[in-house]
Amino acid sequence: MEFQSLFIIAVGAIFISNFVLAKFLGLCPYIGVSKQMDSALGMGMAVIFVMSMASVVTWTLYNYFLAPTPSNLFFKLFMHSVGTPPDLTYLRTISFILVIAALVQFVEMVVQKLSPGLYRALGIYLPLITTNCAVLGVSILNIDSEYNFIQSLVNGFTSGIGFAMALFLMAGLREKLELANIPRAMRGAPIAFIMAGCMSLAFLGFAGLKIG
């Protein structure tokens, strides 16, 4: 039963509730970095890592430090008193953003060290993962959906795969469009937005899937 629930979460995150094509989150890097396959692949891998790690760290942070539960470690370690742990859930958004910012800073340093060419190709869009609403969205969704640790990890990882898949498909289409005879007024961003809309409509077909 646990495997089935994880499978449902994975399929839903990649196809049915794709953050880019169904929830329309993270559109800035989706349009900005999808001009070439190499940069799209690099950004996709970075988002997968950040989403996966953010899901793990934010779930742990919320359940063991922010939520007023018996497992609240902050209350046990620092308060040393008997009673109900304090409700710090109002700090959820700001604490999640700080976690994501730290992870993105780590990814940025690694990419800059290992692949300077990719770092230059990604440009401003790499640090913009910090404010990518898709990364923050998956962290909040894990909490609101009351996922456990493993479910949160699977949802974060597969949501990143869905994001990378949408980015990679768009990059492939845009590279093909460079060779097509497109009216000058439609070149660049206009045709990219039209293709994004067509891809979103195509992915709506997965909404009819019945799993389990």
Properties at a glance:
single chain; 212 residues; 0% strand
Can you put this structure into words, describing what you see?
The protein is mainly alpha-helical and 212 residues long. It has one domain. 68% of the residues lie in helices and 0% in strands. The protein contains 9 helices and no strands. The protein has helices at residues 2-16, 27-32, 37-66, 73-79, 92-114, 116-122, 133-144, 149-177, 189-203. Helix 3 packs parallel to helix 7, helix 7 runs antiparallel to helix 8 (149-177) and helix 8 (149-177) crosses helix 9. The longest helix has 30 residues, at 37-66. It is globular, with a radius of gyration of 19 Å. The model has no long low-confidence stretch (mean pLDDT 86).
Quick summary:
It contains nine helices and no strands.
Shape: globular
Q: What is the ordering of alpha helices and beta strands? A: HHHHHHHHH
Helix content: 55-70%
Main β sheet profile: none
Classification by helices and strands: mainly alpha
